[in-house]
Amino acid sequence: MAERQPLLAIEGLTISLPTADGGRASAVRGVDLSIGEGEIVGLAGESGSGKTLSALAVLGLLPGGAKTGGMIHFAGRELSAADGRAQAELRGKDVAMVFQDPMTALHPMLSVGRQMTEHLVFHRKIGRAEADKIAIDMLERVRIPNPRAAMARFPHQFSGGMRQRIAIASALVTGPKLLIADEPTTALDVTVQAGILRLIEQLRRELKLSVLLITHDLGVMSALADRVYVMYAGRVVERGARAEVLARPRHPYTRGLLDALPHGSPSDHPLTALPGSPPAIGRFPAGCAFHPRCRFAEDICRADIPELRDVQPGRAIACPVDPLSAVPA
Amino acid sequence: MTYLRKSWYALPNLLRFVVRRLFVGALLCLGITFVSFALTQVVPGDPVSANLGDRAASDPEIVAAFRARYGLDQPIPQQYALYLERLVHGDLGESQQTHRPVTTDLSQYLPATIELASAAMILALVIGISLGVLAAIARDRWPDQIIRVISLAGVSVPTFWLALVTFYVFFFKLGIAPGVGRLNPGGKAPPSITNMFTIDALLAGQWATFGIALSHIVLPAAVLAIYTIGSITRFTRAAMLESLSQDYVRAARAKGLPTRTVILRHALRPALAAIVTVAGMAFGRMLSGTVLVESVFSWPGIGQYAYKSALALDLRAIMGVSLVVAVIYILVNMAVDLIYAFIDPRIRLG
Amino acid sequence: MSDAAPLVEDVPARPRRRLMRRSAWTQPLGLVGAALLVIIVLLAIFAPWLTAHGPIDQVGRRFMAPSAEHWFGTDQIGRDVFARVIYGARVSLPYALQLVIMASVIGTLLGAIAGYFGGWIDGFIMRAADLVMAFPDIILAMAVVAALGPGLFNAVLAVVVVSWPIYARVVRSMILTIRDEPYVQSSRLLGVSTARALWVDVRPNVMGPLVVLAALEFGHAVLILAGLSFLGLGAQPPAPEWGSMVSEGSKYFDKWWLSVFPGLAILLVVLAANFLGDTLRDALDPRTAKAFR
Fold it and tell me: Which residues form the ABC transporter domain (chain A) (predicted)?
């Protein structure tokens, strides 16, 4: 899969945010990430790991005061991450985004039809009638019953799962090449989650879509992603094919996350929670930011920030100790 | 009972809302009459001496006739019933000062005030919302700070003083504002339809008169609007900040819509609903602000009427004014709620 | 939904806060307001030492324009306008303070009763508050003054009648919010009576918002009392009250200094109170600040 021409490649992305006392804090500290065409890439990590910020940087939607560095390559175009205007051209047209909570991500006072077509009309410079037709097709594709009637209705008249389908349809109606899905199932009932995941998988096939799937839920990840990135404290700590990473985690943090899963734990160890909690932005520990919570930590972990290094083809970890290399599957 | 309840919930959401709101409005109006009754009949000591002259009050026969006429010889609940009955017939008593029924006086002066307050409200909404939106977009940067000082100054400046100062500057010194009153001296009023001169002049197609009436209303309306501009600006900023932070605004930006569209269509629309509610409440304060502005600009409205009545200690006239203003306040707020219901699909469609 | 929205969940969590979000004293506008108020109060206290003339002394010719000797000029009977403006603070500030104290005490009591008892008592008090708020404040005050006779104290009484509801609303909503906080719930589980819980847990939390509200309302009190005096229904001449000074001055239109300086004094006091109140309101927890509307 690594041979595929990447659709999106992020290189050396850094993001710093203003702090309450007037200083700045690094939130994302040098992230490289690539997504091939038609590939679903999972980005995992706890809150504060910088996964959502990295995705927002691609769209140029970071909160005011954020400063960014690094390069973003998209479909042959090179954009400086620091220049928000370049990303604005991608928004909605080439890159679309779906948010966590469909209850709040759809505008309560605009009709579904309006929200499905307003950006379509703007980007493609087409008439209302034509836009309506495209929108109805897309609603049909995401399995909204009676899509023509749905266009005239308002978000509060739909269930949570239906709303997320509408939000996805609205994101994809302009035919973007990349969909960024930020925790798309977290706010939904478990029974509805599976439907949304199947829908994303189906759309990827039908529309040759690339998807960046952001989640803290490795269960969601395992259902969908081709490759996985795990982030901790603003850095990628492990990357590799999904099956490999989830079956044989090499970074102690990935291992900790998996061990904390209530089921499907791949190891012979009993279910354990990670000790401690993830550090807040601005309070990342020196050296490997994970070392205070790591039971394998050595002196070197406290001294140097570990680089991400290849340990197998397509597999990399940022851990100088690599204590799990010998653990059997 | 259960049948009633069932059929109530079978009604469309919007209709239920409207019925409930009308009912509450009617109750509030009834409450207003009670407070007004309590203040006129109970608080001010002896209404007899307050309403009759000294000589008449010393004549027992006249006093008895007066008491009987206004039911003052009866217990309070009956008095209230009588008061309500008179009210229904439009009887607010007689003004001591003009010796005419208060209702007649009010109907003569009210249109001028409604005209002035409406003009001021339009100004306040346009300027206040624009400034508030600008401030929210530029949050914590210098335009925000400047707008903040402007809006605080707006709610801090004494209206009557500002009226004098602006009149002094624009009329006396610069000569660009017309004099006091609604028209030039000796000017002929347009044919009476609504008794709001700008509207009547438009309806009659009298462009010259319209221009004159408009030029006369600009300065007093602007002065009257200052306070409301300040409060609407502050409120709009807060409401916009709240809606700008919502997910649906972020989603709209992610769709690549131009900033203008995101701000005006996605962020301002929900904020507007809240702003209109606040504007409805501000209208009441504006009506009472006319007392101070009208007396400076010799604007013949109920504010000036109330002022002259207060100087003459003419209690019936003042209570008539406050009753009318309170009822207008309630009606305006009810109308605003109903408009809100029609705008917001969550209420309209249930 | 949160305030000021961390646009992203990854944004660092702000330190946990209760009622004050950030220090109001680092905000320049609030500092300016506080400093102005202190200066004005000092001017009022030390008025006799600051001007050579008393507020009702005739010290010169009539209508002398502002000069080095009479900074703000002299009025229609030759009194020093500067002295009258300075002494005016001794009239306006105490009455406005009285108004705010009376209205806040009454409003707090009624709001606490409504929030504590709930049910029909709550409904009754809050509907009464709605009704009173429907009445136009100045006009109702005019009615009361017409009934009781002109005078600043009567004006204060009149305005108290229409200004208690805002305090009642804020206190009631604070009580309703705090009553459900875990720490209040837990002290009730421990057998502390509701009344005692209100006193121990709620009172300190209500004080902050009340002070903010009082600061904002103080400005409004100064304005409305000056307005009534301007109309001739509050302070009576020759008392050096700012509103009535503006009114007297307006009779001599070309002598601008008679009206301009007392009006500026009103503006300055109200502006100072609003600068301070507004900054304090911003420092309040957003959930609390909502009750202010």
Answer: 8-258
**Chain B touching partners, 3 or more CB pairs below 8 A:** A, C
**Distance of residue C32 Cα from the nearest chain B Cα, in angstroms:** 12
C209-253 confidence digits (pLDDT tens): 898 899 999 999 999 999 999 988 888 888 899 999 999 988 887
The model's pLDDT over B29-70, given as tens digits with 9 standing for 90+, comes to: 888 888 888 777 655 445 555 555 566 666 777 777 776 766
Query: Does B104 have pLDDT greater than 80?
Result: yes
Verify that B108 and B249 share a domain, yes or no: yes
Domain total in chain B: 2
* C234 at B interface, C-beta within 8 A: no
Residue B9 covered by a domain:
no
Q: Is B250 on the interface with A (CB under 8 A)?
A: yes
In chain A, where are the structural domains located?
230-329
Domain containing C148 equals: 27-53+75-292
Is residue C7, in this structure, part of any structural domain at all? no
Q: What is the mean pLDDT of chain A?
A: 87
| Chain B CB within 8 Å of residue C185 CB | no
Single out the residue in B88, B121, B139 at which a domain terminates: B88
The residue ranges of chain C whose pLDDT is under 50 are 1-22
Distances (CA, A) of A239 to A318, B166, C1: 9, 71, 34
Asked if residue C141 belongs to a domain, the reply is yes
Task: Give the pLDDT band of residue A265 (cuts 50, 70, 90).
Answer: very low
Of the residues B14, B137, B253, B255, the best mutation for testing chain A's interface (the one with the most A CB atoms within 10 Å of its CB) is B255
Q: Give the nearest chain C residue to B295 (CA atoms).
A: C231
Q: What is the DSSP string of B55-119?
A: HHHT-HHHHHHHHHHTTTTS-HHHHHHHHHHHHHTT---B-TTT-SBHHHHHHHHHHHHHHHHHH
CB contact under 8 A, C135 and B325: yes
Same domain, B37 and B119: no
From the CA of C15, how many Å to the nearest CA of chain A? 9
Q: What is the mean pLDDT of the segment spanning B264-282?
A: 89
Q: A209: which 2 tokens?
A: 């879509």
| CATH number for position B193 | 1.10.3720.10
pLDDT tens for each residue of A162-188: 999 999 999 999 999 999 999 988 888
Residues of chain C positioned with their CB less than 8 A from the CB of B330 = 134
Instruction: Classify strands A40-44 and A210-215 as parallel, antiparallel or unpaired.
Output: parallel
pLDDT at A267: 52
From residue C218, alpha-carbon distances to A171, B152, C137, C208, C210 in Å are 51, 14, 15, 15, 12
Residues of A in contact with B273 (CB under 8 A): 109
Residue ranges making up the domain that contains B212: 102-348
Examine the pLDDT at A306 and tell me if it is beyond 60. yes
pLDDT at B220: 96
Domain endpoint, select from B88, B112, B138: B88
| C157, part of any domain | yes
Residue A8 CB-half CA count within 13 A: 28
Is C139 contained in some domain?
yes
